[in-house]
Amino acid sequence: MNANTLDSMWARLDAPGGVAWVGAGMALLLAEADAAETPQAAADLLCDAAALASARADGAERAPALYEEAQVRAPGHPPSAEGLALAAEAVGDLRQAARWCEVGLEGGAAGATRLRLLVQLIRAAQDHGVEASRPVLALVKEALVLSPADPALLARLALAGDDAANDPEALDARIAETGSLPHRARLLMARAAQRRETGDTAGAWGDLEAALAADPSLTSARDGLTQILAGEGDHAALVAHLEGAAAALPAGLARGRARYVAAMYADGPLGDRGRAEALFRAAAQDVRGDVAAARELARQGVDASEALGAWRRDPDPREAALRAWQVGRAAERAGDRVLAGEAYEQAASGGLRVARLARRRLLTGGAAAAVLAGQAAPDGLTGLLAEQAGWEALGAGDPAEARRHFEVAAGLLGVERVAAGLRAVGGTFPHEADPIDQWRAAVAGGDGADEAAALIESDASAPQALVAAAYDQADPRQTLKVAQAATGAQRARLALWAAWQAEALGDGAVGEEALRLAVEVADLRLAHIRLGRHLAARGDWAKVAALYDRQPGDGPGLRAALIRLAHGLPRAGDGDRVQAAPAAERWAAIEASLPGEVQQAVAWAEPADGAFAA
Hints:
Layout: H1 3-14, H2 20-34, H3 39-53, H4 59-73, H5 78-90, H6 94-106, H7 111-128, H8 136-146, H9 151-159, H10 168-177, H11 181-197, H12 201-214, H13 219-232, H14 235-247, H15 253-267, H16 273-286, H17 291-308, H18 317-333, H19 337-349, H20 353-364, H21 366-375, H22 380-395, H23 399-413, H24 419-424, H25 434-443, H26 449-455, H27 462-471, H28 476-485, H29 488-505, H30 508-521, H31 525-537, H32 541-549, H33 556-567, H34 583-593, H35 596-604
Helix pairs in contact: 2-3, 3-4, 4-5, 5-6, 5-7, 6-7, 7-8, 8-9, 9-11, 10-11, 11-12, 12-13, 13-14, 14-15, 15-16, 15-17, 18-19, 19-20, 20-21, 21-23, 22-23, 25-27, 26-27, 26-28, 27-28, 28-29, 28-30, 29-30, 30-31, 31-32
């Protein structure tokens, strides 16, 4: 499309009723992009279409899709990379914005486009701590070649650590002369860095506070104050400082992040769980309704816990991995593949095998994940979580997502363990064992449970057959029947499976019976928590206390003691059940009083909506 035609479209758009031209104009641009002779020409036309799409009510969604299509046609295309960077920054995804800036720079952006990409990348790195592939000083110097007298870039040059720009006397003079508050803030941060290097902590503190007063959005200045207090070991002062900083900020990501970091210190070094809980809730409220801000807060929280070591004094790697995987799953469902990949990578570094498979699946697709899963060593915990995720996805109406999770679980627990799930979504089996096929054929045509139980005594491979029969059952009562015929750990697992089936069908009686069986056989935390939740939903607090009293004093017994101390629950036989609060509120209060590692298990044991209705 020639420039005159495009100018004509914009003129029509500016005219009364001009938005009516947008659809036709986009159609023409897209048609010409499809017929373009070169990928570069096609990408240019797609960028024109994206610019035109921004005039539509749904432009915020349509334009990025067109820019992405331009990148598919011509990888590294600078104008579309700039469009994607701006779109990512607009929703608060600064890491993604920085990545697209670098794509555009590597793709050969020149002139004004290159300068804009450099400035956006510098801003993300200096103001918000986003890591760039090149040193910030090199980026600033390159930008100054394109715009030598830009005062904002000169201020950033000092902040980036340039020796000449950071001459103490020259820096003091420039701070005194600069009238622009944002430029002054960055010069103050440069001087604060100098003073910290020379041991002048008080001077650095003053400069950082002055920088924040000049530009409250400077995350890096607030981080500098946090690092000073953390280095001095005064965690109480640190939490108080962050609370004060949050109070001075408007609702949004910056305030949520300040409260998030304060909560981690209150929960970890200070050990003040009540204060931490209040701060976590306040941080969640700060970004409530803003999906992009909530994602960024979750991402920054992970970063902060790694950099400051503040989630707990001695964090459990497995617990941290589970938390990261939970973030990854939520991000993947929301379509944020970048955040999902980062979260899965962190979870994998903590030893969570299913996270490695999930991250690989993001890159290679479900079929490759099935192959990898088939080669993975057994891991009961990750397999259990993957299987649970599969049933959750199936209940949410997403069979494709469910199938991916079941395929991962099949590789970790064995195909027979998730046979029912795979069949429910029309999945294929990564591998099949002949004995399992034989036993399935043997129990086909009946309810399966009686036949499997009767055949246990006649064949050494019966345990496999028993599992195959159980997981082929659609009726939780039949699954429970098979579980009762099993022994040991297999019995507990089958009972837990029957409970999950009962949850999906809302069959509280069978669910409770299955959970009691699982708790009797082994202290399965998920079964234990769900049974307690089920009893609490009925308001049967005496049974809740009795359930906890039966457990060993070291693990679940500790939970029981905390519950009784905090909420006055009676011991078994001490009298009538407590009716101090509605069931849901009381159970929430109990969960809040549990140790952190148990709270994490509670989060993973959360049943589906409507499960176990009283």
